[in-house]
Specification:
39% helix; 15 helices; Nucleotidyltransferase, domain 5; 14 strands; alpha/beta; 22% strand; 395 residues
Length: 395
């Protein structure tokens, strides 16, 4: 018995919505990709979302209305995916939506004797359930944070199911706005995973600021390839406390933002713009390689790195990773039949299914939570009850 589910991912790169239609096995341990689509954000929407994500203060009405709007935009993508794949609404068990991150604050700050670590992803699940007629699971990260976790990364469950191998140590790298790794020991022990630092976020900012204000990113890393890397600036960047902080840890574009870029630009006034784009871009592969060498035990050090996310299309990132990690085979997840653009959306579809079945999806050793958690909030429709009444006992 399998169930059709839809996973939605809108990442910190703020480039659009990825949607994946998948089949999930009844036990929640196997997933098969069926179809995927991506809907880019318009320039005006991206600008509004960027303002909410990076500004320290926001208009509460604007934030509330954007939560509702994102619910509709995510619903539009679900409808488009159903149409393109020739799938009927009645055949979908659930939609699982990560939502659009507006703020991620995992620091264990206390007020009135209680932790106020918090994360905010918008895209109202109730709007989506009402629009699509399909049950929606959303807001996955907060439950993990409620029990002391970082709320991230959550994809290691999928990584372990797809890629753990008894013959060699592997790691999975996802390069979105932020980069994160999952180390999968061949011995089958619990994965190690954490955010390594910037993914695309700083290189995107540098390309727009220094090359062309119309650029949203550096296509293929072309501009980075043209510049000279200044190691002294990279070394100063790598001295930031985040890179030496022990896992479990997570970060966000609130940390690696315009202020961080301004710090780097201020280190050396006479560096040509092209060189600075190359140097800032190199921080992504440099911090990834440093994290592996710094934190991964020798016995578990990977022989292969399986890369997904938008950064897999950046040749500069990929070539630098191969140069900095000569002991490792660096490949796209496409080598194993997993489209790198839809892996995270697949992961949330899997988590959504496990939530509906009452199964945990977080890994405490990864997030730092006290216990594994059933993640997300459920916006129900009558179809949810029809599915499980029909299939009761078929596990």
């Amino acid at each position: 018995m399998t169930y059709k589910c839809i996973g939605l991912m809108s990442g910190t790169s703020l480039d659009g919505i990825d949607a994946a239609l998948v089949n999930v096995s009844a036990d929640g341990n196997t997933i098969h990709f069926l179809h995927g689509i991506t809907r880019p954000f318009s320039d005006s929407l991206r600008k509004k979302l960027m303002g909410l994500a990076v500004n320290e203060t926001v208009n509460k009405e604007e934030l509330a209305r954007m939560d509702a709007l994102m619910g509709h935009l995510l619903s539009d993508v679900v409808e488009q995916l159903l149409k393109e794949s020739g799938t009927e609404t009645k055949d979908i068990l659930l939609v699982a939506s990560h939502g659009q991150t507006i703020g991620h604050y995992p620091d264990k700050e206390n007020q009135y004797g209680h932790s106020i670590a918090f994360t905010l992803q918008i895209g109202d699940g109730d709007v989506m359930a009402a629009r699509t007629g399909i049950p929606v699971v959303s807001d996955f990260r907060r439950r993990d944070m409620a029990v002391g976790g970082e709320g991230a990364p959550l994809i290691p469950l999928l990584d372990s199911l797809l890629f753990q191998n008894t013959e060699q140590n592997r790691c999975c790298l996802n390069i979105g706005g932020i980069a994160n790794i999952t180390v999968l020991p061949a011995c089958g022990s619990t994965p190690m995973a954490f955010d390594t630092g910037p993914g695309n976020c700083l290189s995107d900012l540098a390309a727009a600021r220094l090359i062309d204000h119309g650029l949203k990113f550096d296509p293929g890393g072309e501009n980075a390839f043209c510049g000279k890397i200044h190691d002294e600036i990279l070394d100063r960047a790598m001295a930031d406390a985040y890179f030496t902080q022990l896992p479990p840890k997570s970060t966000s574009r609130e940390y690696f933002d315009e202020k961080f870029l301004n710090f780097l630009l201020g280190l050396e006034k006479n560096v040509p713009f092209g060189d600075m784009v190359a140097t800032v871009s190199c921080l992504t592969p440099r911090s990834i390689a440093d994290a592996l060498h710094r934190f991964v035990p020798v016995d578990n050090f990977p022989k292969e790195m399986i890369v997904s996310g938008g950064g897999v299309h950046n040749r500069f990132f990929m070539e630098k990773l191969k140069l900095l990690l000569p002991e490792m085979n660096v490949v796209s997840s496409g080598k194993y039949g997993i489209d790198p653009d839809f892996k995270e959306a697949m992961g949330f579809a899997l988590m959504g299914y496990r939530t509906m079945k009452g199964l945990p999806s977080s890994i405490p050793e990864v997030t730092g939570a006290r216990l594994p958690q059933i993640l997300g909030k459920i916006s129900l429709t009558t179809s949810a009850f029809h599915f499980f009444q029909r299939d009761k006992g078929d596990d």
